[in-house]
């Protein structure tokens, strides 16, 4: 009898715990339900809807009309602007990604070696990243004015060439790169945290072995921060391939800047979707999916190549 009562008590206790876990699970789902609903409405549904619309002729006003692969066929074979937009985006990414990494890493190393006013300089370097993108674009549009912009005034005072940043097609993409590299605060903070995490004894060992400053940077610093470098390179790539605000604000008139040299993929997508003369939502959805595939392929390649140069420190528990 005693044993039977104990077993019954154990079963009841187990059942109670199971009911308690179920209640906790329901409470957890209830707590995150606003996020789940928002994700379904504003992310998941538009994601799959855009995939469907990419195979249709759709202008928002009239019901979508199924056209199959016609949008993709036109983009890849008959559209004279889309190849130009892809070319501009790739060139911009090739300029922006290394510039952003080198500049943010340099600023982080400068801050890491600073003994006084470190908090002030850290805030000063990070502040541009907090500036709204539209405001930043207008500031740089003024600063890069070929005639009386502050940048060219400084260059002329130093007897250096003053490029026609916003007029010459050769300089439109470098102008946008300059405006974006200025907002390096996020990447700089990541590099600064990585630099502060490098063990000091590694530098001491390298110095004992006779390694100079450059050798310590190449053999110790770069391998130890390679994980953060890879992360910054990945997010910089995604940001560069989806650039929009700066190019649109600085070079929307004429369309895509001089000779369409600042026409990027997302700018062209926006023009096709929301221009009063276009409203080709299905065509814009096809552009969006080609951009998505482009970013996906590049990101996968980056992850594959990272195995050759990214170092992760392994610890034994």
Brief sketch in words of this structure:
The protein is 72% helix and 1% strand. By secondary structure, the chain is mainly alpha-helical.
The CATH top-level class label of the largest domain: Mainly Alpha
Q: Output the CATH homologous superfamily of the largest domain.
A: MetI-like
Coarse morphology: globular
Span from first to last CA?
Answer: 48 Å
Q: And the CATH topology of the largest domain?
A: MetI-like fold
Number of helices: 14
Q: Helix and strand string, N-terminal first? A: HEEHHHHHHHHHHHHH
User: Going across the major beta sheet, what is the strand order?
Assistant: 1-2
Count the beta strands: 2
Main β-sheet: number of strands, strand sense, barrel status? 2 strands, antiparallel
Contiguous uncertain segments of 5+ residues: 16-20
Rg, Cα atoms, Å: 27 Å
Mean pLDDT level: 88
- The CATH architecture designation of the largest domain is Orthogonal Bundle
Which band does the percent of strand residues land in?
Answer: under 5%
Would you tell me the structural class of the helices and strands? Answer: mainly alpha
Helix percent reads over 70%
Please, how many domains? 2
């Amino acid at each position: 009898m005693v044993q039977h009562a104990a077993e019954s008590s154990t079963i009841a206790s187990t059942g109670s715990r199971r009911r308690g876990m179920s209640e906790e699970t329901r409470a957890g789902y209830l707590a995150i339900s606003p996020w789940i609903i928002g994700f379904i409405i504003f992310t998941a549904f538009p994601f799959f809807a855009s995939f469907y619309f990419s195979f249709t002729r759709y202008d928002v006003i009239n019901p979508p009309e199924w056209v199959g692969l016609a949008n993709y066929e036109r983009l890849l074979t008959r559209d004279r602007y889309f190849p130009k937009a892809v070319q501009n985006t790739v060139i911009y990414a090739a300029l922006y990604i290394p510039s952003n990494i080198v500049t943010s890493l340099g600023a982080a190393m400068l801050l890491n070696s600073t003994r006084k006013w470190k908090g002030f300089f850290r805030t000063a370097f990070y502040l541009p990243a907090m500036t709204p993108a539209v405001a930043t674009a207008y500031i740089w549009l003024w600063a890069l004015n070929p005639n009386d912009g502050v940048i060219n005034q400084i260059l002329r005072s130093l007897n250096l060439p003053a490029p026609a940043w916003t007029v010459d097609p050769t300089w439109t993409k470098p102008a946008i790169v300059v405006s974006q590299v200025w907002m390096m605060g996020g990447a700089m903070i990541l590099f600064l945290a990585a630099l502060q995490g490098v063990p000091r004894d590694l530098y001491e060992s390298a110095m004992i072995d006779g390694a100079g400053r450059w050798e310590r940077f190449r053999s110790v610093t770069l391998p130890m921060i390679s994980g953060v470098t890879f992360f910054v390179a990945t997010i910089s790539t995604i940001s560069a391939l989806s650039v929009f605000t700066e190019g649109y604000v600085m070079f929307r008139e004429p369309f895509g800047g001089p000779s369409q040299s600042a026409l990027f993929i997302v700018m062209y997508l926006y023009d096709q979707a929301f221009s009063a003369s276009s409203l080709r939502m299905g065509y814009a959805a096809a552009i969006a999916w080609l951009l998505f595939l482009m970013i996906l392929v590049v990101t996968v390649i980056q992850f594959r190549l990272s195995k050759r140069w990214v170092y992760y420190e392994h610890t034994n528990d």
